[in-house]
Specification:
The protein is of the alpha/beta class. Helix content is 37%, strand content 15%.
Length: 401
């Protein structure tokens, strides 16, 4: 099947071709025709499946078909809500790339940066707005964005938005939208809360699921390395150095832990940066840029970054600490093995984390292979210690993004 057969117009096909794509992925094959027909959609897709192009391409064409772009002051016609700044930037870039030959204007807004430049952009008129919930509500409160004539709403990674406490924000935003709209909801997992949200938002939606619910991509090899808690950093440095890995994404549970590990790796002679919610947007963008270009070998991240990072052909993801929520394991390792490429996911697991590991394996419905690294055999006499859960994951108040 080709992109031409999906009914996309010439300007979009040209942009797709220039990005080097010639065959649509399964989710694109299923989603694009239905979205072009104006249907609501509930899509289940892991990262790296081509989901963003799957809704961006038909969204652009629908806007061209349903009304001509107007000049300054025009209300927003399509809104894409994302949970993180990094994901908003990624989606915004896709909108610009695929819409480069169309007379449509787009903007991306999120927190952590000055609001006045965003206000000036919105006043010029925007057809497509990509936003995080917190900053969008700021603009709504200031009267700097007009959503009254919105025709298409996309909730991207809706499960993550709910995990981060954005459900009230989403409902506040919905109160400003017309009910006569097309709604597209994408989620990697489908909890009861996600299904309830879908029932409230969607009208006779198409259902698309390109991977088994809560499954990890088959293109990712997964391995557990049992190790004592106080030897994890030593083992991590050994693995990176001995294998000469040049690009490794490492996940920790806490912001403080991410900073500390990045500093320790630097002392081991391995260039590393940390990225998490307490970092300024400039620092996060700079760290990600240096990681992508190879200036930094290791990027240490918390779960806030698990959904928003888009790194082409990332070869290695390491769970320095297992996540408290099993689903986050799937999201973390989904940073690798994207778009048909092979990826490797390693987890350094101490005795404290054995219950978390059982929860992950129960979610995956299979056992992950265990390989003990010579010289790092865990002490069988070591007793588990309680794992402190980050308060942010349980706090009902929303995060600002």
């Amino acid at each position: 099947m080709s992109f031409e057969s999906l009914g996309l117009q010439a300007e979009l096909l040209r942009a797709v071709s220039e990005k080097g794509y010639d065959t649509p992925t399964p989710i694109q094959q299923q989603a694009i025709p239905g979205i072009l027909e104006g249907r609501d959609l509930m899509g289940g897709a892991q990262t790296g499946t081509g989901k963003t192009a799957g809704f961006t391409l038909p969204l652009l064409q629908r806007l061209m078909q349903t009304g001509k772009p107007r000049m300054a002051g025009r209300p927003v016609r399509a809104l894409v809500l994302t949970p993180t700044r990094e994901l908003a930037a990624q989606v915004g870039e896709s909108v610009r790339d695929y819409g480069k030959y169309l007379p449509l204007r787009s903007a991306t807004i999120f927190g952590g940066v000055k609001i006045n430049p965003q206000i000036r952009t919105l006043r010029k008129g925007v057809d497509i707005l990509v936003a995080t919930p917190g900053r969008l509500l700021d603009h709504i409160g200031q009267g700097t964005v007009d959503l009254s004539q919105l025709g298409i709403l996309v909730l991207d990674e809706a499960d993550r938005m709910l995990d981060m406490g954005f459900i009230r924000d989403i409902r506040r935003i919905l109160a400003h939208l017309s009910v006569d709209r097309q709604t597209l909801l994408f989620s990697a997992t489908f909890s009861g809360e996600i299904r309830k949200l879908a029932r409230d938002l969607l009208r006779e939606p198409m259902h698309i699921e390109v991977a088994r619910q809560n499954s990890a991509a088959t293109s990712i090899s997964q391995t557990i390395h049992p190790v004592d808690r106080d030897r994890k950093r030593e083992l991590l440095s050994r693995l990176i150095g001995a294998n000469d890995w040049r690009q490794v994404l490492v996940f920790t549970r806490t912001k403080h832990g991410a900073n500390r590990l990045a500093d320790q790796l630097q002392k081991d002679g391995i260039t590393a940066s940390a990225i998490h919610g307490n970092k300024s947007q400039g620092a996060r963008t700079r760290a990600l840029g240096e990681f992508k270009t190879g200036k930094v070998r290791v990027l240490v991240a918390t779960d806030i970054a698990a959904r928003g990072l888009d790194i082409d052909q990332l070869p290695h993801v390491i769970n320095y600490e297992l996540p408290n929520v099993a689903e986050d394991y799937v999201h973390r390792i989904g940073r690798t093995g994207r778009a048909g490429n092979h990826g490797e996911a390693l987890s350094l697991v101490c005795v404290d984390e054995l219950k978390l590991l059982r929860d992950i394996e129960r979610l995956l419905r299979r056992e992950i292979p265990k390989v003990v690294v010579e010289g790092f055999e865990p002490d069988p006499a070591q007793r588990p210690q309680p794992i402190q859960k980050p308060h942010a994951r349980r706090r009902p108040a929303r995060r600002r993004a």
